Amino acid sequence: MKSVSRIVISAALLLASVCAFAQKPVYNGKTLGVLGGMGPAASAEFMRLIAVKAPAEKDQEHPRVILYSNPTTPDRTAFILGKGPDPEPYLVDGLNSLCDWGADVLAVTCNTAHYYIDGFRDQIRKPIVHIIDETIRESRERSAEGAWLLATSGTMKAGIYQKHAEQSGYTFFVPSEELQPDIHYMTDLVKAGKYEEAGKLCKKICKKLWKEKRVPIVAGCTEIPIAYDWSGLDSSMCVSSLEALVDGCLRELYSSAE
Predict the structure, then answer these.
(1) Catalytic position from the list 110, 202, 206, 238
(2) Catalytic residue flag (residue 110)
(3) pTM of this prediction?
(4) Which CATH architecture has domain 25-130+245-256?
(5) What are 10-53's pLDDT values in tens digits?
(6) Are 129 and 245 in contact (CB under 8 A)?
(7) Which part of the chain has CATH 3.40.50.1860?
(8) What's the confidence (pLDDT) of residue 255?
(9) Active site residue 221
(10) Which of 202, 206, 221, 238 is catalytic?
(11) How high does pLDDT run on average in the chain?
(12) DSSP secondary structure string, 143-186?
């Protein structure tokens, strides 16, 4: 009887192993092109998350990634506010360069940059995983009733999150105009490497918003998830646009095994 039991258990374990192998996503061979440097810390965090979240158990199961980090790209918010040069030529050139270098699918690790990308997306040869759409998708799954939107002043003025959310029937709660300068300054602190200070400011902002309405925070700037990580707040109450972009890219790079 013991021998029979061992056989049954072994068969069950083998079946479970086969099923797990069959369900494991498989890298489809596409090359991801990432336009970053906006800012550098966000690009580095994106690459870390790609490595951590990829369904890989060895080097060869990770995706090929080309990172073009170009921090000389003019400030995206400054131009929207009428205070600086146009970054669009840099974005177009960067994405076209990635296509020339062999990228099959593209991503840009800056939310505000997508204000410009929406205007020329159809002119780029390869598909772009859109950080705004991916973040709204994740927000809907986490909080159907809506979420607080924290973003740069450029993103807020451009209304790109609100526009895409309206198209998909999702609700964002917008912080007061009085609070917006602090939110934007928080992103500047991260860019300056002042993470602890950014975390403290993030905690102060979030607690103030949660007194008004206890729903998740959408980090609609790729620096804000870094500030939130330094805040010590509950990670489940933050929807990271950076992580949402990573998830969207991995869906493009991996296919379920048949």
Answers:
(1) 110
(2) yes
(3) 0.88
(4) 3-Layer(aba) Sandwich (3.40)
(5) 444 444 444 444 578 999 999 999 999 999 999 999 999 999 99
(6) yes
(7) 25-130+245-256, 133-241
(8) 87
(9) yes
(10) 221
(11) 92
(12) -TT-EEEE--HHHHHHTHHHHHHHHHT--EEPPPTTTHHHHHHH
